[in-house]
Amino acid sequence: MPAVPRSSKPIFSIALRPPRSLSRRGARNVVFLLAGATTTIGLIFWSVGAWPVIGFLGVDVIFLALAFHFSFRAAREEERIELHPGNLRVTRIPVRGRRQQYDFQPYWLRVVLERGEDAQCSLFLQTHGKSLEIAGFLGPDEKADLASRLEDVLRKNRCYPAQNPV
């Protein structure tokens, strides 16, 4: 694939991140609310002489805080799709590990949305016998919307390569 100059502005660009329904502040509030509730319950058990229960009540708060920590850490994963004249680049930025880049010649590129039996689907970029799954962390509706947008921008780029279709 031809190298894309860093200074060239993409015709189309999108950054995909795993969706999160709860913000960091909301997660912190949930943990504090649960900690307050378990502290109150623990004090009641302590006042009647069942003080060992306090330790067990604290464990659930610690596990919930750890679950939120790992969930938000996984949310830093990102996929970027950029269309430049003559090149479509998919860049994967994992939470850990190396950044991966995949380059495709957009003229021959196909966007394939495969639907499964249980409302799940997979989105692929296919060309010359190669296939790359993209947006694996998105839901079916978001994948369908992305597939439509990619097909549209690729079609416009094929028909009118001198114009910027976005």
Key words describing this protein structure:
166 residues, 3 helices, three-stranded antiparallel β-sheet, alpha+beta
Beta-strand content bin? 25-35%
The computed structural class is alpha+beta
Distance between termini? 23 Å
- For the secondary structure, the number of strands is 7
Biggest sheet statistics: 4 strands, antiparallel
Please work out how many helical segments DSSP would assign: 3
Question: What is the averaged pLDDT score?
Answer: 89
Quaternary assembly: single chain
Order of helices and strands: EHHEEEEEEH
The whole-angstrom Rg is: 23 Å
**Global morphology:** elongated
Main-sheet strand order equals 1-2-3-4
Low-confidence stretches: none
Q: What portion of residues is helical?
A: 25-40%
Task: Explain what this protein looks like in three dimensions.
The protein is of the alpha+beta class and 166 residues long. The mean pLDDT is 89. It has a four-stranded antiparallel β-sheet with strand order 1-2-3-4, with no helix packed on it. Strands 5-6-7 form a three-stranded antiparallel β-sheet, with helices on one face. It has helices spanning 24-47, 53-74, 140-159, and strands at 12-16, 78-84, 87-93, 100-104, 110-115, 121-127, 130-134. It is 40% helix and 25% strand. α1 (24-47) packs antiparallel against α2.
Q: How are the secondary structure elements laid out?
A:
Layout: E1 12-16, H1 24-47, H2 53-74, E2 78-84, E3 87-93, E4 100-104, E5 110-115, E6 121-127, E7 130-134, H3 140-159
Helix pairs in contact: 1-2
